[in-house]
UniProtKB/TrEMBL annotation:
Belongs to the alternative oxidase family. Gene3D superfamilies: Alternative oxidase (1.20.1260.140). Fe cation 2 binds at residues 197, 248, 302, 305. GO terms for cellular component: mitochondrial inner membrane; respiratory chain complex. It is a multi-pass membrane protein. It is found in: Mitochondrion inner membrane. Residues 330-356 have a biased composition (Basic and acidic residues). Its cofactor is Fe cation. GO terms for molecular function: alternative oxidase activity; metal ion binding. This is Alternative oxidase. GO terms for biological process: alternative respiration.
Amino acid sequence: MLSTRSPVLAKTAYRAIGGAKPLAYTRISVVLCQYHAPSFNQVQQVRNFSFTSKAPIQGSQTLQIAPTQTRQRETRQSWPHPVYTEKQMQDIVIAHRNASTWSDKIALNAIRLLRSSFDLVTGYKHDPKIASGEKTAEGGTHFTMTEKKWMIRFIFLESIAGVPGFVAGTLRHLKSIRSLKRDNGWIETLLEEGYNERMHLLTFLKMHHPGIFMRLMVIGAQGVFYNAFFLAYLLSPRTCHRFVGYLEEEAVITYTRAIADIDAGKLPAFESMDAPRIALDYWKMPEGSKVREMLMYIRADEAKHREVNHTLANLDGDMDPNPFMTEYEDPTKPHPGKGIEHLKNTGWSRDEALSK
């Protein structure tokens, strides 16, 4: 309950109730707001991770956050997620495409700079050999990454990863209607990629509500990155797609390391924690799935984005059709598609992508 002895507010209250003029406005106590959560029929929100609270993490609780408004309703997915098999997700590996052109080298160096800055901000460390694929995450040097640190990294990473797809899709959409020409199917894949990355973020937000400092970091990073990527895509779409391909390589490394830490027993809260309902519905996961299984799906998504963007960087954006939206004459032959059954880690060459 909040109260005030302000003369102005007291006078307003007096006029509102039509009462007699008080002897002194300063002596009236006016009730401004009385809030009780049950009166709004809201379920208490579970916040297992908090950057401002020192409360211990409760890994056994089911992570569910109720809608904040009674008018809020569930909606159908704009892009239903393809079904992944357990074997397909287990086969995801760390991979790196060598930079062969000046455009590739610019993209790779930009990612290295972004990665080092990102690692510094989120307090993330990993064995450098993991990035080159020389050894698996399980054999890496020990670094202390707690559940809370992983959540900081996941949320910040996904808030940035959702930008490139929509920037590229928007620019190609505007170019299509400006030039009065079709886009050859690129827009849909790019927007779907941004949508998928946002679903990653929404999933993690069911596990934690960031504090004010984290929100300011996200706003600042998005403002800088959006405008920088927008200008860069106007200058060289090929370089930008290669940049995103390298970015997704790093994302696969990050999630591989997180999964390895869970398997090694370094993240006990994640071991017993249930995946949020939004994850079960989006990825069509079995009931009772844990956070580790959820991270397997997210890592597979990042591997798919890695393949898509490395492939698009190999194509002529003005002339070539999007191979991930193409119907092929021989469906039994490996070819680009929406799923990961024929995943090509470093992207399809132009000849492979345009073959029948």
